[in-house]
Amino acid sequence: MDFSVKSGNPEKQRTACLVLGVYESRRLTPAAEQFDSACGGYLGNLLRRGDLDGKPGQSLLLFNPPGAACERVLLIGCGRERELDDRRFRKIAAHVAAELNDAAASDAALYLTELAVKGRDLDWKIRQLVAAVEDARYLFDRLKSKKDAPRRLLRKIILSVPGRRELPGGERAAREAQAIAAGVALAKDLGNLPPNICTPAYLAEQAQQLAGEFSAIQAHVMEEAEMEQLGMGALLSVTRGSAQPAKLIRLDYRQGPATAKPYVLVGKGVTFDTGGISLKPGEGMDEMKFDMCGAASVLGTFRACAELRLPLNVVGLIPAVENMPGGRASRPGDIVTSLSGQTVEILNTDAEGRLILCDALTYAERDEPAAVIDIATLTGACIIALGRHPHGLFSNHPPLAHELQNAGHAACDRVWELPLWDDYQEGLDSNFADMANISGNRDGGAIMGACFLSRFAKKFHWAHLDIAGTAWKTGKAKGATGRPVPLLTQYLLDRAAEKGKS
Ligand code: BES
Ligand code: MN
Ligand code: ZN
To answer: Of the candidates 362, 342, 321, 337, which has an alpha carbon nearest to the alpha carbon of residue 238?
Structure first.
């Protein structure tokens, strides 16, 4: 989609579809008011006749308004002005995007940037509108033999800003939102692909393709033989039952000063999680194709960073494996030696994410990171604890947790912190190894997973995002969300801005 930012009067916009807001009850927004007086009270008359109330969810498409330069006007109900908050605005944006998708207009001019949203500025509104349009346009039909998607004509969107002074900022906001949307779309595609196509080798190819597309990105793929040599016994134990070879994918984005420490993103890349010998129940098991959404979010974030040319150093590490119950699969009771030297008793082969991540975390030490963030669909328990709105956040460094909370708020891709107290650690005691990979009961499962990982993250500032509840939607709208690409990209944008200031 082609987005541009403009200032100017609504009645003078030459566009196929002008989008204006109406507050409840029947009150025109300032831009709609201005348009109305230029059109001889056309809108006011309609409202008085009761065609639109202004309630959220309402809309009205009008053709050939008299005395205006546009072909159509789409009126959107915005609800009560003083109730207009983040959530309401995002709903309005999604509604407009859906209406425009279905309309026959090839371009549109949106004046919804004028709505006053509590605690949010113009930049935020522009970003939300761009994100909503891109989200509504996303379609995954490459594996349908008959493409019955409706013909979509919309090509160009103009976002209004109050004056010329706001143009540069508005353009930057639109550009950032488009880069994030491109990263989100990549993460969605990878997540939605079936597990017979999206294998560890496929993820490795995708990394290489990304590196081919952007000269700022390099990709390296480590094979099992080298992992063996290094001593990644925990990671390798997970792949044993599978016919698909494991890959440890490394992405390098180096656009910061050579001496600047990198931010390291570690993404869980289990391309299918059967549970292994601790086999999962059959119902809904197809959704375990999404168990690589952490990996997908790392690739998506790299795409966004490259499009934005962020002046930072970022490293991506993706342990990619398939968790299958083959003849060589690890058994409950097996003890393996991790890259860190610590031994792990595998009491449940379904707690595999932590086994691949722990070796990737130890491997990250070599990069002397500024911070390490791992992203993983780690525990069903995280969904029980938090539901499906925020990502679970754990960290060994409170300032890092704050930065992620702030980035999540800014990008509307929020996190919620859970405790990582030492009190929990003894739950992982094993009679036979340095630790077990699960605790003896079901208490605080998301926390126990994070506690396990924390033992491999002692040498750097680290945060863990449990995205089990947020990486995909279940039910009728089943599909990957592309989260937390907006959060991660915002976090890196904030780090780049911070460096720019100092
Ligand atoms: N990939 C799953 C976690 C998961 C389950 C995410 C359902 C989203 C929906 C993970 O590998 C797993 O199986 N975790 C176990 C851990 C348990 C054995 C301690 C779980 O959550 O049941
Ligand atoms: Mn599992
Ligand atoms: Zn898993």
So the answer is: 321
Which candidate in 6, 152, 172, 280 is catalytic?
280
Establish whether 354 is a catalytic residue: yes
Give domain 2-163's CATH architecture.
Answer: 3-Layer(aba) Sandwich (3.40)
**Among the listed residues 200, 443, 178, 442, the one whose alpha carbon sits nearest the alpha carbon of residue 306:** 178
Catalytic residue chosen out of the listed positions 354, 414, 455, 483: 354
What CATH number belongs to 180-497? 3.40.630.10
Mean pLDDT of 171-181: 98
Instruction: Please state, in angstroms and rounded to a whole number, the distance separating the CA atoms of residues 296 and 187.
Output: 5
C-alpha separations of 81 from 10, 108, 147 in Å: 20, 24, 41
Q: Do residues 81 and 27 make contact, with C-beta atoms less than 8 angstroms apart?
A: yes
Q: Does 152 have pLDDT greater than 90? A: no
Parse the chain into domains and list their residue ranges. Answer: 2-163, 180-497
pLDDT of res. 502: 62
CA distances from residue 41 to 11, 12, 245, 278, 360 in whole angstroms, order as listed: 12, 16, 69, 69, 65
For the Cβ of 299 lying below 6 angstroms from any atom of ligand 1, the answer is no
Give the nearest ligand 1 atom to 442 CA.
19
Give the three-class secondary structure for 388.
Answer: coil
Is pTM beyond 0.70 here?
yes
Cα(26)–Cα(43) distance, rounded to whole angstroms? 10
26 is catalytic: no
Backbone angles phi, psi at 27, to 5 degrees: -115, 125
Cis before 7? omega within 30: no
Judge if 2-163 and 180-497 fold alike in CATH terms: no
